[in-house]
Amino acid sequence: MPNYLTRNAAAEFLTSEGFPISPKTLAKFACVGGGPQFRKFGHRPLYAPTDLIAWAEERAGEPVSNTSQVA
Q1: For the residues of 24-54, what is the DSSP string, one character each?
Q2: Each residue's pLDDT tens digit, 40-58
Q3: Does pLDDT of 71 surpass 80?
Q4: Which of 23, 55, 56, 64 is the most exposed place for a label (fewest CB within 10 A)?
Q5: What is the mean pLDDT of residues 24-47?
């Protein structure tokens, strides 16, 4: 069972893993969609570290060797 992270801790975790993001950006994604999966515990969103990393890696895209390869 994963240790769930609050939104602030999730942003710190992603930033420490090389994916800089703010808690406010995670909050926006929670409202409009497109962010990492989360679970609700009362009114508080909780994030699993594995879900955060999977979302960040998917969002980062494929590796490229020069800027002309970026779509």
Answers
A1: HHHHHHHHHS-S---EEETTEEEB-HHHHHH
A2: 999 999 999 999 999 999 9
A3: no
A4: 64
A5: 97
3-state helix, strand, coil in the chain (%, to 5): 50, 10, 40
Q: What is each CA distance from 44 to 5, 6, 68, in whole angstroms?
A: 10, 7, 42
CB 8 within 8 A of CB 22: no
Higher per-residue pLDDT: 3 or 2: 3
C-alpha distance from residue 9 to each of 46, 47, 51, 67, 69 (Å): 9, 9, 14, 33, 34
Give pTM, 2 decimals.
0.86
Q: Which has the closest alpha carbon to 10: 37, 33, 31, 42? A: 37
